[in-house]
Structure prediction request, 570 residues.
Amino acid sequence: MVFYEEQSGKSHTLDFSSFPAPLAMQRWMAVLLAAQCGARGGSKRLATAKKYHWVLRRFTVVLSDAGRVPSTPGELAPEHFQILRDRYEDHPTSLRLYLQALRRLMRKRDDLTEEALHDLLRTRLPAAAEATQVMAYSDHEWQQIMTAVRRDVRISRDRIRVGVRLLARFRDGELIAGSREEALGRMLEEYATTGDLPRNESGVLRDEVSRLGGAMAISGMLSLTRDESTAFALLLSALTAENFGTVKTWPALHTRPDGRVSAQAVALVEETKPRRGPDREYMVVALEDLPASLRELAESEDTEPRLFLSPLRVYQLLLELTQTARRLSGATRAFVSYSPKRRSAFGRDMWNTEVHVKHWSQTRGFPSMREAVAGGPPVVQVRRIRQSALELKRRPVAHSRETLRDHYLKRSRTVQEQSRSVVGKALREQVAKGRTAMEVPVFTPAFLDRAARGLEAAAAEAGLDPEVMKRLLAGDQDTVLTGCVDHLAGPDTPPGTPCTASFFACLGCGNARALPHRLPVQIVVRDRLLATRPNSDPRPGTRNTKRLPTGWRTSCVTTPLPSASRPAPS
Prediction:
């Protein structure tokens, strides 16, 4: 089976004849891979096709070692998948990888038995290792990475602009004949025109190329290096929160719906995400400029760092610095370089994300995973860069809000800490509100002594009418649990009508006042409530008055009952 990668045009032969399985199973597995990686499949990368091929091979090898290789797909049974689980029981990471791949390949196959398919999909995947958890960078780590990225972008911008100006001066005849600048300008002219530098008859670069700095230095005056292209892709990924693998395939062709005259500048760029499937893999990303207030500041040299906060400006700068390489190669990609030593364009196939990001980071002083130490420079990983960018933006990028919430933000330690803080604050506010609502002003014995000496002064201190204060002290305003300031002004009844609320509501009523002679009843009620709690429905709003003792279902009483007729709690 030959696999062709769409974007790079690479081809690779995937051999199924070496699988230790009957011919029918070999052909069936080739069909599985073709369905997943074909034109209607969701996997378009050569590396992904190789991974699926490897998993299918390992599956047949494990079954062959156990002597249980089925002859046809219909003979696959639950015990075959159990053999794989038992084989990699002590290697959960590998088992997770194999089961995920087999599920993607086989989940829609109707030539499997229902029992086998159910067994493959029934079990939970082994938990991912802790080391594979994607965590965002801290503010200090993020600043370290972005400083190194912007430094490379600035250096490449200044170098290529100097080269372009030198070439323009050479073409205008402004350089002194015989000078080093004039010789370098001639080299740039030949490189910009032919894509090559002067060579001997044998094809070797002439000595004058070395004297002027070498082929890479001369071509670098009009073209980006691989590391600089990596830096541009990292910066755009950080600014847009797009996947690094998606950004690096952006085309140079784009649309400016603003017509280049609108205050809100934007460029629309087509991108592809094959994992979304053939019906949704093609998307359009909007690269926006800075807001008007920041854009005006960015025009001055004093605020140059603001220039690199705009995705649109970084993208435009990338196109500016790669235009010579694009013209020489005929490519339409935004990320492209051109080397006279290789006489070819570095395109998407130059990008091996793991290799080139690792090379860029380690040559800039960032460690590898093995060399990283706590408190030192961070390891540069494209997945962590996107995670950090999404946490900063807090809006979905090329996915749904549910994916952002349940996948990216849910695993974020920063978001978890902030969520706990927000929820804790809200709960404390509600508790404080509840405590405030349940607080009943208490008339202490000292206050009662002052009232006995001067009723009007005590009433003014309590904010009550002296007559009301007199009736409270005499017990004429008593309810079951407290004293009531005004039973005709209940919180849940129309003004002027007697309050019909349960006496339990008195504990949260603004009309209630607690006096010392009511304390014994309150203690009895509290003890009785605690005793009946196991038999009460804890759901809020549930009324369970049937379990209360007889005589306790009453409303506010404004006239004290005779002692003989007062209900005695049992």
Q: What stands out?
A: The radius of gyration is 39 Å. Residues 139-171 form the longest helix (33 residues). Confidence is low (pLDDT under 50) at residues 297-303, 344-350, 543-570. The chain is about 45% helix and 5% strand.
